Amino acid sequence: MVLQSGKGLLFIAVVAGLVVISILSSQHALADNVSVVIPPGAANPNFDTPAAEWFSPSVISIRVGDTVTWTNHDGEIHNIASGTGITRMEFVTSSNVGTADGLFQSGPLAPGESWSQTFSKAGVFHYFCTIHPWMNGAVVVNERIPTVPTDASGAQITKWPVEEKTLDGLYEADLAWEPHVILTGQRETLVYQFYNGITGRLIESGVPYELVIYQNGKEIFRVDDNTQIGGGYRYFTFDQPGAVTFRFQKIGGGSSFADFSSLVYQNPNATQAGLPVIQPARNVALGQAFAAVFIVPPLAVMALVFIWAKWGSSIRSKMPGKKHMKTAVPPADSHEGT
Hints:
- The chain is α+β, with helices and mostly antiparallel strands and 338 residues long.
- It has four helices and 18 strands.
- The chain folds into two domains: 3-27 and 146-265, Immunoglobulin-like (Sandwich), CATH 2.60.40; 33-143 and 279-289, Cupredoxins -  blue copper proteins (Immunoglobulin-like, Sandwich), CATH 2.60.40.420.
- The chain has helices at 9-20, 88-93, 284-294, 296-317, and strands at residues 3-6, 33-38, 59-63, 67-72, 81-84, 99-105, 114-118, 123-128, 136-142, 162-165, 171-178, 182-183, 187-196, 208-215, 218-226, 231-237, 242-251, 256-265.
């Protein structure tokens, strides 16, 4: 969370800048239809398979409502099933064939055939081929970001600044934020002014107030301040997506308050922690390391066993044995009679 405040003449410059400058921040455009290819060689579990990855691309990012189409460019039959597949090591060393969770499932895709799935919920969806369960992929579905600002209920905001009158009728509070569509990690400029609720005139003298920001039902910021030269502004950056409420309370030092709401969306340009990592299909270096660790030692042992079985007796006969020393036995003592 990043936060700054300013007062005085700088407020006038900020307001003027917001009037002149429209929304310049670009938003990540994600296609409505995304294609994924099953490349040639994907059915080959070896490390030197021609396929660089099982699905191309193996991880894709889309938005809610978008459609993904898989096309089989391999020479073998494949399918697409949501769930978790296995690794090549598990394929060799265990009977595990992966676990399908039933969220989506295609039929058999012969070479050249395609199948599509539309995603209506945000989340990370893993999938694999149940025929070749080492083939893994993932679809990251982001919330659809609107092109127009809305309040927390989803209603479009069409007039700026947003005007709210306090329940006691003593004040009118005006609030604008820029950019209008709020994204995580994006600095927002909040500009606000207070008017006399009866006369409608701008209150140019300092007005005490307390600004509290709630997000997803929890307070995330609070500050006491005073307006100067008719208003105030503040910079704020949201870390998390979700519904947000800007509450101006204790306006004028009393109990007057006014609430404004909007929605904060996950910034698709921001790095998201926990995104799936799919191991590449083609990995000659890893294949060589695998052979060095798991194949070469057993082969070496087998070679030694073969050599010993075939030429072991000859080898043993030529090995130096223990030398046997002959020990002289002294003659028995003789006794002569006298």
